[in-house]
């Protein structure tokens, strides 16, 4: 960036801060009039908006200075037959100052029929990305801008998405706009700090339900039989969380106190929905959040709509949350699956206050709303739900994904500059969710639980219906706790990387005489941090490895003497982040490793066993333990484990171990022996797990990933046909597809006929995606060529969900030879894919690239990155990560060969 542009950006950032929000914090005692005068006094730099997709931070900041206020009236005409829809937007726009530059209105990929300002039609200036209105066409003060338009429905799960159910032909529509897709629905000022109210009316087929942020106040039947839905003005919120969903949904109703609740799903999915679970988790979450925040729910009603083809888990649209249909099972859910549903319900509800009521100014603040909701969802479940293992699940999912992401080359600080909306999308990652949530989890330990709660409540109160920044949030927390959090904020939020701690200790007369915590950091991110953790001291008592002492400690710097440990029992096992208070990697001492190796199943705490199993597998991926040694340990000890979370972790690690065994260049005899042993173990656990238990379901999933020998595939075929039954195991429709994909992955039996036959019985969109995966995973060059051609050259013939189903299945670890046969085409297409500027498509294409354990593959990654320095972030970041993961794989392979003596 040039010096001139740096200065301009700095000016824009200053202006953006000055003009923040629709509600000024009471502490500043500024009236709206005074705030408007402050906006008008800001110097407005020159910004040239390129004719290109997306929105830059500079353009958004300029527009925030141009516009003092805006509200919308949106009229839309929907039908079930057309591939497009029409609409009219009337934007009541208050211009803050005499305009020196054109005003732009975001609108991507549609057609504009007319534009008028204050009742006067003006020439249309529309380039496919935004509508331009010249300065002389607008007055200082109130203006009415009206635009008539049409736009195609989308098929990629964003904008206004259209889905036609293959079972009954019904059409369903829903919106998904984050971060910058509201302009694929209507011409809007599509940025988070231009909050507006929305008055909506919709013409739709007679049997459709129409849903937006408010409940309808009138439904009129039109002469042609359609219905005209009219909705009152909403409260002010950002464009990216505006909802409009429509279709012949099945509707269930309930209440949370006085808050009306509705749950909706398409007709053919409805029989599988369990509304009691949805409403129970929703009511429990409302009970928690209203008390915790100290603020009544601000949006009057609460709808939850389960939608198809969704590209993410769920979205916090104001009062009309959307959920991926993957949360609906066609069989009995495990407790872990029920907890995931409860967690996502709580996560989206947390956003109603933190994200919707109070919103970040720009997308650099994305992490805060997502991190906060990630943490708060787990806190809500741990406080007010049936689940007693919430923090173990937080450790399994959020923490582990964060640790991995933070060691990859694409790691970044939690808070980062976001120059444009394309970068915003690429920041939806495990740093944003997992690390951010993990770091926020520290703060109640660091500040005190009540101080943290009070800080959150005052922040939400002061900035209600407005926008805020990180400094506002941290300022309220610091004030509540009477602490200066500037250093904490800098170290944890503005610096990347994860630290590692270990401990040295000495004992005399079976008591600790000295204990020191040692902290290290990666070379690229050398910062040493401060945080509060808990040490766990474990000793064997009556054949049980018992925690005999827990020592809270705040460590910092290279070494921290722990005075509180002096006099405590000498540990047989010392855990350094007991109960997972902190965000840090830990390294067990040799004595602890020896005891863990002997007594892993005697440790009383399942959470501790969980963390120790993870620590052992970390030793493999860090190339400190040979994979074969870990496999032996796992197969000798995992069978005695009874805790479902530990079982889930071990089964996941066994699947990963099998994948690494395929990647390593080890003698075939050794590889076959390892894979056979893992397969046999999974089959045994499946058959011996308690009938109908979650452990049984977990081992079934592992078996369908690990089975590869004729004997195992024969067992799988008999499970599918019903010739073989395992007591308590129901082979529901989704499990049938798991088995069919396994058959196709190994070309076993009449694998193709199984797909065709199953589609005749299960003609759902989910089944069609399963069938695509089953086809794409077949280990033949013809199949790979066909699907690569479909993904690259025929993508307009497939929905995004179908492209993702194929790409995710095309090159599993045991098919690396086929991947290498197509490397030239795969890498050759990278610039062409990137040039589409389609973030979702780039993200799907990136699924094709595997961890490939050879220097030749690593060089291929390096070459394509060197030759294409400006790739779309959604693709370029994955290629960088795969190169790093392949390098780790080579190091692991070297440790394996060294450990085996080859």
UniProtKB/TrEMBL annotation:
<keyword id="KW-0482">Metalloprotease</keyword>
<protein>
    <recommendedName>
        <fullName>Aminopeptidase N</fullName>
        <ecNumber>3.4.11.2</ecNumber>
    </recommendedName>
</protein>
<feature type="domain" description="ERAP1-like C-terminal">
    <location>
        <begin position="575"/>
        <end position="884"/>
    </location>
</feature>
<keyword id="KW-0645">Protease</keyword>
<feature type="domain" description="Peptidase M1 membrane alanine aminopeptidase">
    <location>
        <begin position="282"/>
        <end position="492"/>
    </location>
</feature>
<dbReference type="InterPro" id="IPR012778">
    <property type="entry name" value="Pept_M1_aminopeptidase"/>
</dbReference>
<dbReference type="InterPro" id="IPR014782">
    <property type="entry name" value="Peptidase_M1_dom"/>
</dbReference>
<dbReference type="Pfam" id="PF17900">
    <property type="entry name" value="Peptidase_M1_N"/>
</dbReference>
<dbReference type="InterPro" id="IPR042097">
    <property type="entry name" value="Aminopeptidase_N-like_N_sf"/>
</dbReference>
<feature type="domain" description="Aminopeptidase N-like N-terminal">
    <location>
        <begin position="72"/>
        <end position="241"/>
    </location>
</feature>
<keyword id="KW-0862">Zinc</keyword>
<dbReference type="GO" id="GO:0016285">
    <property type="term" value="F:alanyl aminopeptidase activity"/>
</dbReference>
<dbReference type="InterPro" id="IPR045357">
    <property type="entry name" value="Aminopeptidase_N-like_N"/>
</dbReference>
<dbReference type="InterPro" id="IPR001930">
    <property type="entry name" value="Peptidase_M1"/>
</dbReference>
<feature type="compositionally biased region" description="Basic and acidic residues">
    <location>
        <begin position="25"/>
        <end position="37"/>
    </location>
</feature>
<dbReference type="InterPro" id="IPR050344">
    <property type="entry name" value="Peptidase_M1_aminopeptidases"/>
</dbReference>
<dbReference type="InterPro" id="IPR024571">
    <property type="entry name" value="ERAP1-like_C_dom"/>
</dbReference>
<keyword id="KW-0378">Hydrolase</keyword>
<dbReference type="Pfam" id="PF01433">
    <property type="entry name" value="Peptidase_M1"/>
</dbReference>
<dbReference type="InterPro" id="IPR027268">
    <property type="entry name" value="Peptidase_M4/M1_CTD_sf"/>
</dbReference>
<comment type="similarity">
    <text>Belongs to the peptidase M1 family.</text>
</comment>
<feature type="region of interest" description="Disordered">
    <location>
        <begin position="23"/>
        <end position="52"/>
    </location>
</feature>
<dbReference type="Pfam" id="PF11838">
    <property type="entry name" value="ERAP1_C"/>
</dbReference>
<keyword id="KW-0479">Metal-binding</keyword>
<keyword id="KW-0031">Aminopeptidase</keyword>
């Amino acid at each position: 960036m040039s010096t001139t542009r740096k200065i301009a950006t700095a000016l824009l950032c200053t202006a953006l801060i000055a003009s923040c929000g629709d509600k000024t914090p009471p502490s500043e005692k500024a009236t709206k009039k005074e705030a408007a005068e402050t906006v008008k006094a800001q110097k407005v730099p020159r910004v040239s908006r390129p004719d290109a997709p997306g929105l830059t931070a500079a353009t958004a900041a300029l527009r925030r200075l141009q516009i003092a206020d805006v509200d919308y009236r949106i009229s839309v005409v929907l039908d079930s037959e057309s591939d497009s829809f029409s609409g009219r937007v009337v934007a009541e726009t208050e211009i803050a100052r005499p305009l020196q530059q054109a005003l732009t209105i975001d609108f991507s990929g549609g057609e504009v029929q007319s534009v008028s300002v204050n009742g006067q039609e003006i020439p249309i200036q529309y380039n496919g990305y935004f509508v331009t209105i010249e300065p002389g066409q607008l007055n200082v003060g109130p203006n009415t801008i009206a635009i008539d338009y049409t736009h195609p429905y989308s098929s990629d799960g964003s904008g206004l998405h259209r889905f036609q159910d293959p079972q009954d032909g019904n059409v369903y529509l829903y919106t998904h706009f984050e971060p910058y897709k509201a302009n694929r629905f209507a011409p809007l000022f599509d940025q988070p700090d231009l909050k507006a109210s929305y008055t909506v009316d919709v013409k739709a087929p007679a049997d459709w339900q129409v849903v937006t942020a408010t409940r309808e106040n009138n439904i009129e039947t039109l002469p042609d039989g359609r219905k005209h839905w009219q909705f009152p003005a909403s409260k002010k919120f950002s464009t990216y969380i505006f909802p409009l969903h429509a279709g012949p949904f099945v509707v269930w109703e309930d209440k949370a106190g006085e808050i009306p609740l509705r749950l909706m799903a398409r007709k053919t999915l409805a029989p599988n929905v369990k509304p009691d679970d949805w409403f129970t988790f929703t009511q429990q979450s409302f009970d928690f959040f209203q008390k915790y925040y100290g603020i009544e729910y601000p949006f009057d009603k609460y709808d939850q709509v389960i939608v198809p083809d969704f590209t993410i888990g769920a979205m916090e649209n104001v009062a009309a949350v959307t959920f991926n249909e993957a949360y609906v099972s066609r069989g009995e859910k495990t407790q872990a699956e029920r907890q995931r549903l409860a967690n996502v319900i709580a996560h989206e509800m947390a956003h109603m206050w933190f994200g919707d009521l109070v919103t970040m100014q720009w997308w650099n603040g994305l992490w805060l709303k997502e991190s906060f909701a990630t943490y708060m969802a787990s806190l809500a479940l741990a406080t007010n739900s049936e689940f007693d293992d919430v923090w173990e699940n937080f450790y399994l999912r959020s923490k582990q994904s964060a640790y991995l992401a933070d060691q990859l080359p694409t790691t970044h600080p939690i808070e980062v500059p976001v120059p444009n909306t394309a970068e915003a999308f690429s920041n939806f990652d495990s740093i944003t969710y997992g690390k951010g949530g993990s770091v926020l989890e520290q703060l109640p330990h660091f500040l005190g639980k009540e101080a943290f709660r009070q800080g959150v409540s005052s922040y939400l109160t002061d900035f209600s219906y407005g926008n805020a920044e990180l400094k506002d949030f941290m300022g309220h927390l610091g004030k509540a706790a009477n602490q200066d959090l500037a250093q904490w904020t800098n170290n944890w939020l503005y610096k990347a990387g994860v630290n590692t701690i270990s401990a040295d200790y000495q004992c005399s007369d079976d008591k600790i005489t000295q204990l020191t915590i040692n902290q290290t950091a990666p070379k690229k991110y050398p910062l040493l941090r401060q945080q509060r953790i808990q040490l766990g001291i474990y000793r064997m008592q009556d054949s049980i490895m018992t925690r005999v002492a827990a020592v809270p400690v705040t460590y910092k710097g290279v070494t921290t003497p722990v005075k509180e440990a002096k006099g405590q029992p000498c540990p047989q096992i010392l855990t350094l982040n007991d109960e997972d208070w902190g965000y840090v990697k830990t390294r067990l001492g040799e004595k602890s490793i020896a005891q863990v190796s002997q007594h892993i199943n005697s440790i009383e705490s399942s959470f501790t066993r969980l963390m120790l199993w993870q620590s052992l597998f970390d030793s493999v991926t860090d190339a400190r333990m040979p994979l074969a040694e870990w496999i032996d340990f796992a197969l000798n000890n995992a069978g005695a484990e009874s805790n479902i979370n530990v079982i889930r972790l071990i089964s996941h690690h066994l699947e990963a171990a099998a994948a690494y065994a395929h990647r390593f260049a080890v003698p075939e005899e050794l590889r076959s022996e390892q894979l056979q042993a893992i397969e046999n173990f999974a089959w045994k656990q499946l058959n011996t797990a308690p009938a109908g238990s979650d452990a049984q379901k977990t081992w079934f999933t592992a078996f369908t990933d690990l089975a590869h020998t004729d004997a195992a595939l024969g067992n799988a075929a008999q499970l599918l046909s019903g010739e073989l039954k395992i007591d308590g195991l129901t082979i529901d429709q989704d499990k049938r597809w798991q088995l069919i994909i396994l058959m196709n992955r190994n070309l076993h039996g009449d694998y193709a006929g199984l797909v065709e036959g199953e589609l005749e019985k299960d003609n759902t969109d989910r089944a069609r995606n399963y069938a695509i995966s089953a086809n794409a995973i077949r280990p033949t060059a013809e199949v790979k060529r066909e699907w690569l051609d479909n993904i690259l050259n025929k993508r307009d013939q497939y929905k995004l969900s179908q492209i993702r189903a194929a790409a995710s299945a095309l090159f599993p670890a045991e098919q690396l030879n086929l991947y290498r046969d197509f490397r030239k085409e795969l890498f050759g297409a990278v610039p062409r894919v990137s040039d589409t500027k389609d973030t979702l498509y780039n993200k799907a294409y990136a699924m094709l690239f595997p961890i490939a354990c050879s220097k030749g593959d690593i060089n291929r990654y390096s070459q394509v990155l060197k030759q294409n320095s400006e790739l779309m972030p959604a693709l370029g970041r994955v290629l960088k990560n795969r190169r790093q993961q392949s390098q780790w794989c080579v190091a692991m392979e070297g440790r394996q060969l060294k450990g085996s003596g080859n």
